[in-house]
Amino acid sequence: TLTIATDIWRHEGVKGFYSGVAAPMSGVGFATAAQFGVYGYVSNLLSRMRYGGDVHNLSDHLQNVNNLDVFDKVISATCGGVAYALIIAPFEMVKVRLQTQLYFDHRRYYGALSCGRILYKEGGLRKLYLGLDVMLLRDIIGSIVYFGSYGLLRQALPQGDARENIASTLFAGGCAGMTQWALIFPLDTIKTRQQIAKKGTYIDWVHCGRVLYRKEGLQAFYYGLNPALIRAFIGNAICFGGVEAAMATMERFEIFENEYE
Asked: Cα–chain-centroid distance for residue 35?
């Protein structure tokens, strides 16, 4: 990690550390909103269809304060993961190409929009969604672990005054993000290798994984894991903290109270 950081600093300076940041920033908000929104919607749908139960807000579903069993939670999380992958896929493709163009002489982009236009001209939506199959697998598994681990931790952590609830939310959210990324990181590595490779290098993501393992060994699937886990803890602690705070505010002002009635 330190070697890569030094190399980026030497060739691109400070701006190199933020290369490609516009693309994920543009899409991750919409993708995360869709993931949480679909998870909550499907959870309520299953609650009413299967059990005739009361409708809960998103915070109740996240903290496992509902009448759903494990199978229902897996279905809800799967739907949330699919929604996330479908939205974020082209943004991640653009991000990866921008971050790695230094290593390919024939690739020169002038920002996220330029990169997106060039990729679309080269292969249309199919090009922008390269690696979608492994992304769906990554985000479905990740979403199940993400929401599941958060709910379990919130149930295990203290549920007291506002300060304890905030601390529990931030800690559980950070740990959920780390658990998710520790598990799905090899799939993300395969996705990235597939997206940056020259056309025809790999048949599919399975072939990509086999080639990577044969040439570089198991450790190749975990390059960059440590900074990814640090980022995951901080980012997801903030994410869950924001979601829980927003739900508490809407409940306080009775926003969407009759949405499902």
From this structure: 9
Q: How far is CA 82 from CA 31, 192, 235, in A?
A: 10, 18, 20
Alpha-carbon distances of 241 from 169, 185, 200, rounded to whole Å:
6, 24, 43
Q: Which residues of 230-251 are buried (b: 16+ CB within 10 A; e: fewer)?
A: eebbebbbebbbebbeebeeee
Query: Whose structure tokens read 């697998």?
Result: 137
pLDDT band at 251 (very low <50, low <70, confident <90, very high): confident
Q: Shortest CA distance to 111 belongs to which of 183, 12, 30, 18?
A: 18
- State the burial class of residue 218 (Cβ atoms within 10 Å of its Cβ: 0-12, 13-18, 19+): exposed
Three-state SS for 111? coil
The answer to whether 95 and 20 are in contact (CB under 8 A) is yes
pLDDT above 90 coverage of the chain, percent:
58
* Residue 230, helix vs strand vs coil: helix
- Rounded Cα distance, 104 and 116, in Å: 17
Question: How far is residue 259 CA from its own chain's centroid?
Answer: 28
- Please give the pLDDT value at position 260: 43
- How do residues 131-157 score in pLDDT, each as one tens digit? 999 999 999 999 999 999 999 999 898
